[in-house]
Amino acid sequence: MRRLNPKFFFSFFLVLFLLGCKSEGKKADHKISESKTDLVDLTDDQLLDTVQKQTFDYFWDGAEPNSGLARERLHMDDEYPTSPKNTVTTGGSGFGLMAILVGVERGFITRQQALERYEQIVNFLEKADRFHGAWPHWLNGETGKVVPFGKKDNGGDLVETAFLVQGLLTVSEYFKGGDEREEALVARINELWRDVEWDWYTQGGKDVLYWHWSPNYGWEMNFPVGGYNECLIMYVLAAASPTHSISKSAYEKGWARNGKIVSNDSLYGKALVLDYYEHNDAAVGPLFWAHYSYLGLNPKGLKDQYADYWKLVQNHAIIHHEYAQENPKHFKGYGDSLWGLTSSYSMKGYAGHRPGNDLGVISPTAALSSFPYTPEASMKMLRYMYKNEDSLIGKYGPYDAFSLEYKWYLPRYLAIDQGPIPVMIENYRTGLLWDLFMKNKDVKEGLDKLGFTNE
User: Fold this and answer.
1) Contact at 8 Å (CB) between 279 and 242?
2) Which of 148, 277, 366, 425 lies 20 to 30 A from 288 at CA?
């Protein structure tokens, strides 16, 4: 819905030229090609281990070295036309915090290594620019100063802050009850959490949360956040805050739009459950809406007066899979084993791919991050990628997006797309991140306050 929209207009032939000229991207492709036979022979569990390790590495080896946070993007062709390589993303870093826990549990790194990285990250976040407790969308990883996401978007970003806090609270639960050093980390995370002024972002008590505030432009961006989209976690955390909580009416009137959020429509025989767009008639959103809020928030058994959230997110993924099988635009490759539309790079720049806005571009994160909802279809996609499209896989897993129809891809990654992959796969395998986040006392109280039940 709202992520970077760089103006990339590369043709297929230019892409081939870049891949031929840039040794880093060429190395990544060559390495994967050499191991193709081994990958094809892997069991399902081994293949899941492989993609989790590769995507975890984006946030470990690929992190910005000073801050320890996730770079907004990593381009294996070493071309950065829209933002410097040292730009870090707060929301994507929240996903990365959770991915690092996957790394510990899968044995990629030790608990001690993770602790040291988290201490580095918290050190940076404590000193970085904040605006009434909220971090901006982007930060300079070397200085901690805001990097404007747009002309007037140079202050607090409450949605990205919510994604970051979701990760921080999950980490704090993991280390809670540990030794003295681990408990010190938990205490520092708790202070960061308590400092976020969620209520400030209601513009003085209005019954809705606003996405942005700038010290230079105030509320001029004027983006009240109504559902349904990727922002449910923001309302849950805002209600859960022990220091700056919002009222239940902000959730009911702002997010749920006085009940207008409910949908009685269906697509491919599957109930939509909620209305996906407040301001247009599009039937269904890009698949990241089923991922970002649910990296920690467990939709299994989660209900409120408006929705059964498991039905909502599972149907969302099934609809995307059904759409690919129908393939109404007859794009090459679409089908049972090649599916998934979400916001990602494309031939026309950054685009919000979904049924109804389909450019012929598949984004691997869409299907791979949907493992909890569509395990068989997601496994088919994963195996297809590693067996048949290994040139589209590099050091940090599948590249961000590709089109078989237009013979297009770039050897590039985005943190917000790589991050959900290892996290949601782990939630499918063990429920690790769901279990940790849902244990948090404040989160439980926030869900209760808003009328959620979790059966």
Assistant:
1) no
2) 148
**381 vs 377: CA distance, rounded Å:** 6
Q: Report which residue type is found at 264.
A: N
Confidence (pTM): 0.92
Question: Distance between CA 97 and CA 423 in Å, rounded?
Answer: 10
pLDDT digits (tens, 9 = 90+) for 269-319: 999 999 999 999 999 999 999 999 999 999 999 999 999 999 999 999 999
The beta-strand segments (E) located in 321-399 are 343-344, 351-352, 393-394, 397-398
The percent of residues in the chain predicted with pLDDT above 90, rounded, is 90
What's the token pair of residue 168?
A: 């921080």
**Residue 325 class from Cβ within 10 Å (0-12 exposed, 13-18 middle, 19+ buried)?**
middle
Say whether 167 sits in a helix, a strand or coil.
helix
Give yes or no for a contact between 378 and 367, defined as CB atoms under 8 angstroms apart: yes
**Segment 69-114, tens digit of pLDDT:** 999 999 999 999 889 999 999 999 999 999 999 999 999 999 999 9
Strands (E) located in 124-273: 138-140, 156-157, 212-213, 266-267, 270-271
For 388-440, the DSSP string reads H-GGGEETTEE-S-EETTTTEE-SEEEHHHHTHHHHHHHHHHT-HHHHHHHH-
| HSE toward the beta carbon, residue 221, CA cutoff 13 A | 25
Angle made by CA atoms 272, 326, 368, in degrees to the nearest 5: 65
pLDDT in tens, 9-49: 333 222 322 333 332 222 233 232 334 546 778 999 999 99
Which of helix, strand or coil describes residue 302? strand
Res 34: pLDDT: 37
- In terms of Cα–Cα distance, which of 347, 337, 328, 392 is closest to 367? 337
Residue 192: which residues within 8 A CB-CB, separation 6 or more?
A: 122, 125, 126, 165, 168
Encoded tokens for 337: 């084993």
What are 306's two structure tokens? 């408006």
Higher per-residue confidence, 178 vs 81? 178
> How many CB atoms lie under 10 A from the CB of residue 81?
8
Q: Kindly state the DSSP code that residue 136 receives in the 8-state scheme.
A: P
DSSP character at residue 145: -
